[in-house]
Write a structure and sequence with these properties.
Order of helices and strands: HHHHEEHEHEHHEEHEEHEHEEEHHHHH
Strand content: 5-15%
Structural class: alpha+beta
Number of helices: 16
Length: 439
C-alpha cells in the first residue's frame, strides 16, 4: 500500500497538471483498518453511538458494505454530531463536529490518498494540517524571513468563521482540477452535504465544512491553496515594488513586506479577492504593523516603541543578540500563558487524591507537552515562569489534602527531591530553527 501511494505522489510531482481518474481502489479495507487503529480509544462517538472499541470489534461486519457502497457511489455519509466547546480564555463557545467512528476512518483514509497528490502541489508558505509540517516550521520560517530578508512591515490576518464559510461550489471545482475519479468526488460531495445533528434536530449544510472531520483540514488547505497561496505567488508578488513573503498556518496567515505602500495596496486587493470566494477578514485580528530590523532602526531614531507580533501562541518582538545584531525575541502570549497555567491547575486539582508519585507523573506529562511546544530558543524565561507557577501551586494542592495545616517548604522540597517536577527545556534552539525553515 505504501509503495502504491508513493507512486501516486511521484506521478503528481512529475505532472503538475495531471488529473487522476482512478484513485478509489487505493481506499482499501487495510487502509481503513489502519486509520481506525490510529483513532484514539477515548474519541467521542458520532450520532450512531458506536465507540472506537465497538467499531473495531464489528469491523468485518460493516467494512465490506462500506467499500461496496463507495464503488457504486451509494455511500451515505452520516450527519455530524455538533457539540459546543468553550473558547480558551473566553466565555463564547465554538462548534465542533463529531463524525461517526467508521466515517471518520474512511475520511482519514481518503485524506491519506489525496494528500499524496496535494502534498506535491502545496507551496512552501503553507503550514498546518500537513504531515511533518507544523507550527514550529511556520515559526522557523517567520524567523528566517524577518531576520534575513528585507522586511519592515507585516500584515497579520485571520479569516472570519473560515471553516463555516467555505463555498461548496468553488471547493469542488478546486478538487476536480486534480481529481477526476467520480467515486472520490462523490464521497467529498456527500461529506460536504452530510448535515449536522444537534439536540435531535437535523440541519442541512449549504456551506462550510464542520471542524472535527479528518477530511476538513485537507479540504480547507486545498481551498486556500488556490484562493490565496497560488494567487499571491503567481499574481501579486510580481506587481509589488519590493520583496514580499506569505506565511500561512491553516486560516491564520501573515504577509511580510519591504514597503508600506505594497502592504496597503495588498490589503485592499486582498479583501476583494476573499469576497469573491465568500471569505472575509476578521477585523479584530487583522492589523498592519511595522516590524523587522529596519523598522527597529527607524523606531530608535524616532524614539518610538515597536509593536509586537502575535502568531501561533507566541508574542514576537524585536531585540538584539549578544553580538548586538538584530533578532526576534519570543515569549508565550499572555492569554496562552494563562491557559497553560489553568490546564496545569486543573490537572493538579483533579489528581490530588492520588499518591504524590502518581501526581508527579501526571503533572510532568502536562509539563513535557507544554515544554515541547513552547520550548523555542529565546523563550526560556517564560518556561521558567511556568515552572514556578506549577511549583507553588502544587504545594498548595498538597496542603489542601489535609486539615492538619500546610506542608512546610522543607517537607515540600524533600518530596520534590523524591518525585521531581520536570525542569524547563528548550527543544528547538535558534540554530535548529534554521533547519526547520521551509522558505
Amino acid at each position: 500500500m505504501t509503495t502504491k501511494l508513493e507512486g501516486i505522489a511521484a506521478k503528481a510531482r512529475k505532472a503538475p497538471n495531471l488529473k487522476f481518474t482512478s484513485l478509489c481502489h487505493h481506499v482499501t479495507r487495510e487502509l481503513i483498518w489502519s486509520c481506525l487503529c490510529q483513532t484514539p480509544q477515548r474519541s467521542a462517538p458520532g450520532i450512531d453511538g458506536i465507540t472506537v472499541k465497538m467499531a473495531k470489534e464489528g469491523f468485518n461486519e460493516w467494512i465490506d458494505k462500506m467499500i461496496q457502497s463507495i464503488h457504486r457511489k451509494g455511500y451515505k455519509a452520516p450527519a455530524v454530531r455538533r457539540v459546543w466547546i468553550p473558547k480558551p480564555g473566553k466565555k463564547a463557545k465554538r462548534p465542533l463536529g463529531v463524525p461517526a467512528i467508521a466515517d471518520r476512518a474512511l475520511q482519514r483514509s481518503t485524506a491519506t490518498v489525496l494528500s499524496m497528490i496535494y502534498e506535491q502541489d502545496f507551496l512552501p508558505c503553507s503550514f498546518g494540517g500537513r504531515p511533518g509540517i507544523g507550527a514550529h516550521n511556520a515559526l522557523a520560517t517567520l524567523n528566517e524571513v524577518v531576520s534575513g530578508k528585507k522586511v519592515s512591515w507585516i500584515l497579520e490576518a485571520d479569516l472570519k468563521n473560515y471553516f463555516g464559510s467555505l463555498d461548496h461550489g468553488w471547493l469542488l471545482r478546486f478538487v476536480e482540477y486534480r481529481v477526476g475519479d467520480p467515486r472520490i468526488l462523490s464521497l467529498v460531495k456527500r461529506w460536504l452535504k452530510a448535515g449536522v445533528m444537534e439536540n435531535g434536530e437535523f440541519q442541512a449544510s449549504e456551506e462550510g465544512t464542520p471542524q472535527g472531520g479528518s477530511i476538513s483540514v485537507l479540504l480547507s488547505n486545498i481551498y486556500l491553496h488556490y484562493v490565496l497561496d497560488l494567487w499571491f505567488e503567481k499574481v501579486v508578488k510580481h506587481r509589488l515594488r519590493g520583496e514580499a513573503y506569505l506565511i500561512r498556518y491553516i486560516d491564520d496567515f501573515m504577509v511580510c513586506f519591504q514597503y508600506r505602500s505594497d502592504a496597503i495596496k495588498f490589503q485592499s486587493v486582498l479583501r476583494k479577492r476573499l469576497k469573491k470566494f465568500s471569505l472575509q477578514l476578521e477585523p479584530n485580528k487583522t492589523q498592519l504593523l511595522e516590524f523587522g530590523r529596519y523598522a527597529k532602526e527607524r523606531a530608535v531614531e524616532k524614539g518610538k516603541r515597536l509593536q509586537t507580533l502575535y502568531f501561533l501562541g507566541f508574542t514576537h518582538y524585536c531585540t538584539i543578540n549578544k553580538k548586538g545584531k538584530f533578532m526576534i525575541g519570543r515569549k508565550i502570549e499572555k492569554s496562552r500563558f494563562k491557559r497553560a497555567c489553568a490546564k496545569l491547575k486543573v490537572c493538579m486539582l483533579n489528581n490530588r487524591h492520588l499518591s504524590v508519585k502518581e501526581q508527579a507523573i501526571r503533572i510532568n506529562q502536562v509539563l513535557v507537552g507544554l515544554y515541547a511546544y513552547y520550548g523555542i530558543g529565546g523563550n526560556m524565561q517564560s518556561l521558567k515562569k511556568l515552572y514556578r507557577v506549577t511549583d507553588r501551586y502544587w504545594r498548595c494542592v498538597l496542603s489542601s489534602r489535609s486539615q492538619k495545616g500546610t506542608i512546610t517548604w522543607a517537607r515540600y522540597n524533600f518530596l520534590k527531591k523524591v518525585f521531581p517536577l520536570r525542569q524547563p527545556r528548550i527543544y528547538l534552539p535558534h540554530f535548529m530553527m534554521e533547519d526547520k525553515a521551509v522558505l
